[in-house]
Amino acid sequence: MVSELIAKVEKKQLKETPPEFKIGDTVDVYVRIVEGEKSRTQVFNGTVIARKGCGVNEVFTVRRITPTNNEGIERIFPLHSPNVEKVHVIRSGFTRRSKLYFLRQRTGKSVRLREKWVGKAK
Hints:
This protein is mainly beta. It is built from 1 helix and 5 strands; from the N terminus they run αβββββ.
């Protein structure tokens, strides 16, 4: 009874077409930022290292390494947030894990993942 009511309320807050991406994909996340009365769009580029939750509570974590300081930056984005305008997949990485937390200890070229190639069947 209670879960049906919650599901009914949450259904209104879900996006019509949520973005499609997987763990290991390199993505551009377009985030709306409000500063005073003005709003602008900021792009956060990185690798998706985790997805968790379901429904309205689904979130994904994107990690990138700054070129100047060589520091890792992770941001957690709610998938159905109105502030996340779109998620653009740049390249797909091949992974065998659902959480890529091991990338936190890596730097340089070892952070890169193999690219997933989709070929034609002969």
